[in-house]
Description:
Layout lengths: L11 H9 L2 H15 L4 E11 L28 H13 L4 E6 L9 H13 L3 E5 L5 H10 L3 E3 L6 H4 L8 H13 L3 E3 L2 E3 L5 H12 L7 E6 L16 H14 L4 E4 L8 H9 L2 E5 L12 H11 L2 E2 L7 H17 L8
Parallel strand pairs: 1-2, 1-9, 1-10, 2-3, 3-4, 4-5, 6-7, 7-8, 8-9
Helix pairs in contact: 1-8, 2-9, 3-4, 3-12, 4-5, 4-12, 8-9
This protein binds iron/sulfur cluster.
Iron/sulfur cluster binds next to loops.
Pfam families: BATS, Radical_SAM
Keywords: 2Fe-2S, 4Fe-4S, Biotin biosynthesis, Iron, Iron-sulfur, Metal-binding, S-adenosyl-L-methionine, Transferase
Cofactor: [2Fe-2S] cluster; [4Fe-4S] cluster
Amino acid sequence: MTASVTRHDWTLAEVLELFNQPFNDLLFQAQTVHRTHFDPNRVQVSTLLSIKTGACPEDCKYCPQSGHYNTGLDKEKLMEVEKVLKAAADAKAIGSTRFCMGAAWKHPSAKDMPYVLKMVEGVKALGMETCMTLGKLSKEQTEALAEAGLDYYNHNLDTSPEFYGNIITTRTYADRLETLSHVRDAGMKICSGGILGMGESLKDRAGLLIQLANLPEHPESVPINMLVKVQGTPLAEEQDVDPFDFIRMLAVARIMMPKSHVRLSAGREQMNEQMQSLAFFAGANSIFYGEKLLTTGNPQADKDMQLFARLGIKPEEREEHADEVHQAAIEQALVEQRDSKLFYSAV
Ligand code: SF4
C-alpha cells in the first residue's frame, strides 16, 4: 500500500489485515504515514468544557450523563455565557488552541440556541478555534452555528453500525450520519470517532474506522476513546482493553485517515506515560488537557507538559493575532458579553 494515499473505499478484509499484522510492522507503517503529513513532534492541544451537564435523555450505556442511569453526577443547567468565556480565556492562557464545549442534550432547543451562538462568537473572538458537541442538529441549527463561527462539530459514531444497537437505543446510526452530513454541508469541520472497551469485537473496531474513513471526506479530527468505567452505568463492569489493542486502533486510524488529527481522548488518565508515548508514535497527535474532560478526570496540564518535554514534543500552534490585537479582542469579547442580554438565567 502507498503510505500517503487518502482513500474512501476501505473493505473489512483490508482493515482486518492492517490490525492483524505484527505490532512492530503496524507501528512502523503508521509512523511512516504520520511523518508524510505531520510534524511527528507536534501535538494539537484542546480544552474541553462541559457547558451543560447530566440529565441527558439519551441512553448511551457508557455515559454517566445519561438520565437513564444513577451515577450520582451533579446535574447542571446551561452555563452562563460569561463563565464559558472566562474558562476559554483560562484555557488559552495555558496554551490551548481549541476550545470544545459539550452539552448533554438530545439536541439543542430553540430556547438555548441564542446562548450557544453567543458562546461560539465569544470564544472565536478570543482567537481560539471553536468546537461544540450538542447532540443531533437540524440543518438550520447547523447553518446558524457555522455563521456564528463554529469551526468543528463533534458527533461521534461510537462504534460499528452492527454493534451500535447494543449501546444506544434512543438515537439511530442514520441520525448520526445525517448530523455529520449537515455539518459538512454547512462548511464546518467534523470531529468524529468512537470508544473502545464496550464489549465490541475487532470487526466492530474495524467497522467504525471504515464508516469514518469511507465518508465523502475524512473527519478532520478523530477522537479514539478508551471506555472510562463509571459505577451506575451498564458498562461499569466491562473487561479492560489490552493496551496494545488500543495502540493498534490508533495506528490503523492513522493509516486509514492519514491527514486527520487522531485524538488520544477519554481514558488517557488511566494510561501510563509509556503507553501515551506509544500512542503518539502510533500517530495520535491531539489531546485534551488542562480541564476536566466532560465529567471524567483528565491529567493536569503541567503533567502533560512535563511528558511533552521529556519526549521532545511541542504543542501544535495555530496562526495567532499579534499579542496586543489578541488582548484587545479578549477584552472586547468580555465587555460585549457583559453588556449582552443573553446571559443565561439558571432558574
Ligand atoms: S453520550 Fe452524549 S448523548 Fe449519550 S447520554 Fe451522554 S451526553 Fe447524552
